[in-house]
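Kindly go through one protein, given below as sequence and tokens. The question is how this chain folds according to its tokens.

***
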Amino acid sequence: MIDKYKYGWDDAIPISDDEVVFIKSDCQTCENQVWLYNLEKDAMRALPIRYCKYPMIWRSATQQLVCLDAVKDEYFLTDLDGKNIEYLFHANKGAPMLYIAETDQVLIRVVALDWSQMAEVFSVQLYDFKQKKILGKIIDPAASNTAVLYFKE
């Protein structure tokens, strides 16, 4: 299936039951290309999304991909046509981890330096797409990596 294309690709982001998007890096131009792969048809095509260093999550409420802008170092939303771009927040504020479709929010992982321990500490905060802001910490910093599991009741 995907192996026959011989592309080096990172994490695939599911956008439907039979489609995923992923990045293919071009070693000659040092640019990333976002690709759409249809599992049912075993076909893929390049998407006209520019400056997407990493696709992070799929926002199903608006049918948009959250990407990290390679130039501005900011996260942005874009549709699959590379249009309807909306910048969210700078990468130093955190990295999107998990989209919660029921509330149209995303958990973001924030890294900070604890000067007393000279160690990185991680916290998880909640970003609300409708309010366009980070609502606050939901998991306090700990001196280890943060893993989050979300269980839908």
In short: The chain has two domains: 1-91, 94-153.
